[in-house]
């Protein structure tokens, strides 16, 4: 009995096999973790500096408007670029560009009168560099680990991101409040420098003989490929439906202050989802035994919406924190299996372009969801916006999975794309 219990618990532990077996995966993981941690420190410092300089909430929100076009345009182009050039070179080149941009942010803070226009310019340039870099980084993951280790590699990558999401804002808040934004941006700069140096240590990953030069035709080819494959289309649509209909973060200040009467605990609302996601990552060892990954994505996204809706009914803030943590765990499971499907089934010559499309999907959904939540809250109430979003999310995901029923039946053991990639990796 005790042995059986130990075996079951062992299945839950995060699988460290990719970390032990792949030097380049370790480099990607450490570099990405440091990069993300520094970026989250800057994520706190930038809006703080903008608000201090302008006193305008709109000026802070306008940064999103400045970055959305570069995100869309260069996200797609960056994906096409990642399918044609040597990916290590692209990571290093974009890293160096980010070093320059971050150094400009630090220099601006040292001016007697920091320039607001320069902050916006740096924000747009950073969005361009990030959009060019991220598809290459994500497209490398299936190249640096064994095919069967992809679920564990995705879980480890997600875990380090969650740690950065928790620790980065906390560190940024301390730095901004105690020693100022200059130090916060300097920490971000140091993280980018360190990560870029690590990227130079990666092996060479050249494009295959079937690679296509970046062009509108190549980008269009990636989009057509994504839409022709119903399993991929479902991963994008299920996530966008879930995020658009049930993204509650923009309502947290009003929910904590006006509804739950606990403004001092607002930070815990923001941390709850990350804590839940981290718990899911730490117990992700079971994921490698799941073959019906489409079903897992659907059920996890339904769980996300249901937990958000229940949190909206919370009689006190602790109830809300628990269910937002449950929502974060469910979202992490969805992220995990969507990433596994992408990395186990997409051909390497298409991986960069599809990574660019994925980046747009999980960026635009939450942005639209925040706008939806704010509008509904203004027209009705904060509780109504959160609860209705959860209910609509559940209904929308069910409807999407019925429409794309092949996704519900997806099985990694028999899916033609998964079988082909598995055989190619085994032959290579």
TrEMBL record:
Chain ranges passing through the membrane: 27-46, 58-78, 90-110, 181-200, 236-256, 268-287, 294-311, 385-404
Organism: Kribbella speibonae
Pfam families in the cross-refs: MFS_3 (PF05977)
UniProt protein name: MFS transporter
Source species, domain of life: Bacteria
Annotated localization: Cell inner membrane
Entry keywords, A to Z: Cell membrane, Membrane, Transmembrane, Transmembrane helix, Transport
PANTHER family, sorted: ENTEROBACTIN EXPORTER ENTS, INTEGRAL MEMBRANE EFFLUX PROTEIN-RELATED
SUPFAM superfamilies, per database record: MFS general substrate transporter
Main localization of the protein described in the UniProt heading: membrane
Residues in Major facilitator superfamily (MFS) profile domain copies: 223-428
Signal peptide coordinates: none
PROSITE patterns xrefs: MFS
Membrane topology: Multi-pass membrane protein
GO MF assignments: transmembrane transporter activity
A cellular component annotation (GO) from this entry: plasma membrane
């Amino acid at each position: 009995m005790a042995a059986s219990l130990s075996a079951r618990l062992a299945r839950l532990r995060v699988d460290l096999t990719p970390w032990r077996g792949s030097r380049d995966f370790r480099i990607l993981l450490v570099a990405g973790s440091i990069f993300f941690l520094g970026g989250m420190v800057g994520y706190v410092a930038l809006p703080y500096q903008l608000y201090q300089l302008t006193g305008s909430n709109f000026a802070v929100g306008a940064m999103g408007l400045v970055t959305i076009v570069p995100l869309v345009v260069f996200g797609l182009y960056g994906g096409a670029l990642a399918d044609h050039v040597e990916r290590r070179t692209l990571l290093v080149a974009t890293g160096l560009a980010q070093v320059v941009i971050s150094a400009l942010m630090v220099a601006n803070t040292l001016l007697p009168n920091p320039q607001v226009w320069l902050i916006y310019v740096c924000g747009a340039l950073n969005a361009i560099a990030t959009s060019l870099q991220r598809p290459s980084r994500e497209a490398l993951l299936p190249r640096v680990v064994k095919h069967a280790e992809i679920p564990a590699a995705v879980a480890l990558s997600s875990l380090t991101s969650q740690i950065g999401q928790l620790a980065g804002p906390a560190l940024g808040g301390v730095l901004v409040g105690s020693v100022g934004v200059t130090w916060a941006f300097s920490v971000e700069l140091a993280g980018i420098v360190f990560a870029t140096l690590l990227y130079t240590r990666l092996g060479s990953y050249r494009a295959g003989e079937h690679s296509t030069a970046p062009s509108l035709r190549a980008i269009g080819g990636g989009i057509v490929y994504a839409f022709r494959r119903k399993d991929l289309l479902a991963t994008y649509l299920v996530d966008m439906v879930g995020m658009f209909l049930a993204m509650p973060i923009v309502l947290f200040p009003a929910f904590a202050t006006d509804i739950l009467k606990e403004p001092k605990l607002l930070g815990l609302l923001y941390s709850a989802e990350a804590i839940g996601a981290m718990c899911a990552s730490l117990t992700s060892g079971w994921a490698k035994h799941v073959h019906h990954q489409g079903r897992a994505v659907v059920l996890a996204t339904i769980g996300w919406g249901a937990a958000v809706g229940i949190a909206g009914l919370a009689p006190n803030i602790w109830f809300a924190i628990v269910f937002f943590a449950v929502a974060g765990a469910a979202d992490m499971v969805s992220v995990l299996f969507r990433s596994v499907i992408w990395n186990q089934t997409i051909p390497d010559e298409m991986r960069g372009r599809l990574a660019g499309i994925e980046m747009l999907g999980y960026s635009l959904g939450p942005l639209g969801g925040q706008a939806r939540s704010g509008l509904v809250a203004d027209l009705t109430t904060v509780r109504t916006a959160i609860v209705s979003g959860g209910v609509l999310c559940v209904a929308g995901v069910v409807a999407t999975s019925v429409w794309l029923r092949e996704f519900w039946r997806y099985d990694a053991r028999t899916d033609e794309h998964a079988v082909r990639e598995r055989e190619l990796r085994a032959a290579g």
